[in-house]
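Quick one, tokens below. Sequence please?
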């Protein structure tokens, strides 16, 4: 599900699958991405997303892509969600979080605990800044300046192929394949060219599989790739 990435980040910021890779061979090198775990589900024991600098990096990268391209207006305003631990739409939750940060002690239990956790993690000021900016962008339609110095270009590029949600053109799909090879996501590239990822089974590739295999670096490791084998 393409929405899982922004959902995971949203849950990471706003909340108080472990799959077995059945494919044993072939195995190819997959560059380690610091943000990879966010693609597959929120893990509250992972401290990476709790660091202020990483939260800001994700936020500024999302600003560059456009929050409106990551979540639809319908999802933003809907109270029926499975990814937040409170029965509110993301729109209303953002409003409430901004208000309760100022008067934490007088706030309902949920918000008091939320900001208490952020304070104990040392990222409360950062999260508050981001909450205010998301409100400006999504609720007020503001166009905020992006801090390009802290954007993760790799993350931005990868997400640009999946958001806004659409069927990639042949040109986009081929560009993605070559980009994956270029940055060292070779297991992901293999899953695309070999048809092991169902989203790319019908692509008319401009390079044949054998030619791709010649440039992919094999590995004895079995890291989880950005684009998984989802056909088994």
């Amino acid at each position: 599900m393409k929405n899982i990435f922004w959902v995971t980040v949203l849950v990471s910021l706003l909340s108080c699958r472990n799959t077995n890779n059945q494919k044993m061979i072939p195995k190819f090198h997959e560059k380690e991405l610091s943000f990879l775990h966010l693609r597959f589900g929120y893990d509250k024991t992972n401290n990476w997303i709790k660091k202020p600098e990483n939260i800001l990096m994700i936020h500024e990268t999302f600003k560059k892509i456009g929050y409106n391209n990551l979540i639809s207006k319908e999802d933003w305003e809907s109270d029926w969600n499975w990814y937040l631990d409170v029965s509110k739409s993301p729109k209303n939750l953002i409003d409430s979080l901004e208000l309760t940060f100022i008067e934490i002690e007088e706030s309902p239990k949920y918000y008091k605990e939320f900001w208490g956790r952020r304070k104990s993690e040392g990222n409360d000021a950062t999260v508050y800044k981001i909450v205010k900016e998301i409100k400006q962008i999504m609720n007020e339609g503001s166009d905020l300046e992006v801090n390009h110095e802290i954007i993760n270009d790799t993350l931005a590029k990868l997400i640009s192929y999946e958001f806004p949600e659409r069927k990639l053109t042949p040109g986009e799909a081929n560009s993605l394949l070559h980009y994956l090879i270029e940055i060292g996501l070779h297991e992901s590239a293999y899953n695309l060219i070999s048809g092991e990822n169902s989203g790319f089974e019908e692509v008319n590739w401009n390079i044949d599989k054998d030619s791709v295999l010649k440039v992919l670096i094999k590995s004895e490791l079995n890291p989880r790739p950005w684009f998984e084998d989802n056909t088994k």
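The first helix runs from residue 4 to 14. The chain has eleven helices and no strands.
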